[in-house]
Amino acid sequence: MMLSPDQAEADLSWTQADPETLLNGLKSAGCTSDEPAEGEERAKCKADQPLSREEKRRRRRATAKYRSAHATRERIRVEAFNVAFAELRKLLPTLPPDKKLSKIEILRLAICYISYLNHVLDV
């Protein structure tokens, strides 16, 4: 992508401005420089202070308490899911009866078995 000379000059005009002028422009826009964070300076704008609903949700989800509660809920959900698969597995006829099946194998075998039972009832 080629830049026109006019566009390049417009883009570079800020580099030729006095640093004091740039700082005053930032302050008038509501930006102030606060404490450096880990060796770098960060500018905070007053316009950024009210957090959006999404930002509040992101910050809440970042807390250790929230993550721990979420992990507990997920663990309970997965355990219930596995119990349901185990119960379904017990109802399916296979040889040997204690053969370990994957979840997809259990579902496919259940589909076949239900189709077979449906066919038996129709005849």
Automatic annotation (TrEMBL):
Residues 65-117 form the BHLH domain. Keywords: Developmental protein, Differentiation, DNA-binding, Nucleus, Transcription, Transcription regulation. Residues 56-68 have a biased composition (Basic residues). Residues 39-55 have a biased composition (Basic and acidic residues). It comes from the Eukaryota. Pfam families: HLH. GO terms for molecular function: DNA-binding transcription factor activity, RNA polymerase II-specific; protein dimerization activity; RNA polymerase II cis-regulatory region sequence-specific DNA binding. The keyword DNA-binding applies. GO terms for biological process: cell differentiation; nervous system development; positive regulation of transcription by RNA polymerase II. This is BHLH domain-containing protein. It comes from Mola mola (Ocean sunfish). The lineage of its organism: Eukaryota, Metazoa, Chordata, Craniata, Vertebrata.
